Amino acid sequence: MLEVYPMTSITNELETRFQQAFERAFGEAFSAIDPMIRAAQDARFGDYQSNVAMGLAKKIGDKPRSVAERIVANLSIDDICETPEIAGPGFINLRLKSTWLAEKISSIAIDEKLGLEPAREPMKIVVDYSGPNIAKQMHVGHLRSTIIGDTIARTLAFVGHQVIRQNHVGDWGTQFGMLIAYLFETFGTEAVNTGNLHISDIEAFYKQANEKFRSDEDFARRARQQVVELQAGDQNALRAWEVFRNESLKHCQEIYDRLGVMLNISDVRGESFYNEFLPGVVDELLNNHKVAVEDQGAVCIFLEGFKAKDDSPLPIIIRKSDGGYLYATTDLAALRYRVRELGAQRIIYVTDARQVLHFQQIFATAQKIGWDMNPATQQRASLEHVTFGSVLGEDGKPLKTRSGENVKLKDLLEEAVLRARSVVEQKNPELPEDQKRDIAGKVGIGAVKYADLSQNRTSDYTFSYDKMLAMEGNTAPYLMYAYARVKSIQRKGQINEKETSAGEKITIAHPAEAALAKKLLQFSEIIEEVVKNLRPNMITSYLFDLSQTFSGFYENCPVLKAEDDATRASRLLLCDLTAKTLKQGLALLGISTVEQM
RNA sequence: GCGUCCGUAGCUCAAUUGGAUAGAGUGAUGGGCUUCGAACCCAUAGGUUGGGGGUUCAACUCCCUCCGGACGCGCCA
């Protein structure tokens, strides 16, 4: 009788067996060594391989191949694999038995988490993402943080962590001083009490104010002064600020809803929230921890290892000479709040790569004075900066409109949906109107998100409607189409047959079935990796792989016209699991699926 | 000047964080629909991983150096 652990991934299972073998072969001291189990990248090497023998050889003082042989001799995995083979310098190649594969895949087919082992110790994880400057409309510059952060948050939640979303909006800085100063100077300080401002007003307003800010030094000084007054609690300034802020937040929420991002108003904890803590932060850093010093009228922190242009020490300025606070101050206050009040054990900052230096300084400061330490548990929170590159236009420069402005997210999404609509119209003109609209919405938005997420975060990427909406290649429409095809089989299959009975087992006979089963079993491994390295493109490339593997199965293995009932039932189950996995995988990316398209 | 990231097929990108003969898509060429959705699939061609050196049993990956690019570097965020 096979012993199957339904919630354990293949690699975990193999790792355990290898470690048992290490202990038997080399002694107890070796039982915790990482067996370096990897999915084989070439089918000739089997399904999985262990690369441990080469490294271990040095420690033990034996030849790699001989080490591999000793491991294999002590390995008991004949329930899972065929006899392991040793190849090359000492690779141990493993080929899964199809009986075991069938057993394992059958257990996953009815598992809600698709074989994923929920986190043994759920953590409190803060994910800080999106964080737009809300004085103006959201634009492309906010796109990547918003959708990458959302994917990370969804993925961590899926494995069972407690995710606390934090939208650190810019609602308190110079740009607001600028707006308020401009408002007062054009309409007088009373306008906020009577005026009826809309976002379109604010948009035009922002442009004018910004223009004046740049061209008029006196005005710029007054705008900065306005920030100080706002931060000091001036009533008129506060009222104006509230009007601007509420309008802007409403607009942001529209974008989040359109984008299908799980942020809402309760996740907003902007710069203004931390205002009341800032004097205390400066005071503590200055007087308690004594890491900050006054320098040229400003309060600065000088840390070792941070150098400015001329090799002089590079400060973090936490209070300007005019008494105003800066984003470093706010970020330190936020970090402390997240650790102490929210109980974060891991804090993930999703911002663009240009801010690496800033976060290095913030993290270093926090770690130096112990603000990353939870007072109750005495555990340090893991501070992680998830960076990403810029969105470029087809000219290779940061994406702008023809007139040189930032592309508004609203316009960008509308354009994507419009283009998706015309494709739907072309491919499936007979669908009812409301369904077409639904499909176009999901395909258009999904395409934008997928194009971004499928890129390796760290590099810049070129934005192209044509490429993201292409039906062929590694795109959202392709995956959604793959999903729709599977659903189509299920629809047809259930016309003749009420239900796939729950007791059915999957059997693996055809190579294409085996390939599909193995791919499906890897879902949990991929997710586990992403939890660690926070790289959404591992999910996209997995899903694309899965779709292609399914296509191979689809071409070679008739489902509804299978040779016998048992095969048909087994294949229907494989289809069902494929559909679930695609749907769940896309859901982690915040992309909706449609049954027909 | 210093620092960070990057340079991979004509183009757009991967490469399980040091593993085997560097893979996909697109474009090109040639095939496959009277059978579950052809928005699909299969095959072929395409590479000195920017150059050079080093570490290692093993380097796209780590170190050094040069070339080319993006982005940072005291009171913006």
Describe this structure in words.
With 597 residues, the chain is α/β, with parallel strands linked by helices. Among the domains are: 10-96, 2-Layer Sandwich (Gyrase A, domain 2), CATH 3.30.1360.70; 174-267, no CATH class; 409-468, no CATH class; 476-588, Isoleucyl-tRNA Synthetase, Domain 1. It contains 21 helices and 13 strands. It has a four-stranded antiparallel sheet, covered by helices on one side. Strands 6-5-10-11 form a four-stranded parallel sheet, sandwiched between helices. Helix 13 links the parallel strand 10 and strand 11. Helix 1 (10-26) packs across helix 3 and helix 4 (98-109) crosses helix 18 (511-521). It is globular, with a radius of gyration of 28 Å. It binds one RNA strand of 77 nucleotides through helix 2, strand 8, strand 9, helix 13 and strand 13.
Low-pLDDT stretches are 1-6
CATH topology of the domain at 476-588: Isoleucyl-tRNA Synthetase, Domain 1
Query: How are the strands of the largest sheet arranged?
Result: 1-2-4-3
Structural Rg: 28 Å
Name of the level-1 CATH class of the domain at 476-588: Mainly Alpha
Q: What portion of residues belong to β-strands? A: 5-15%
Alpha-beta classification: alpha/beta
**Helical percentage:** 40-55%
Overall morphology: globular
Q: Kindly state the mean pLDDT as a whole number?
A: 90
In angstroms, what separates the terminal alpha carbons?
45 Å
CATH superfamily membership of the domain at 476-588, which one? Isoleucyl-tRNA Synthetase, Domain 1
Number of helices: 21
User: What is the architecture of the domain at 476-588 at the second tier of CATH?
Assistant: Orthogonal Bundle
Biggest β-sheet strands, sense, barrel: 4 strands, antiparallel
Q: Give the beta-strand count.
A: 13
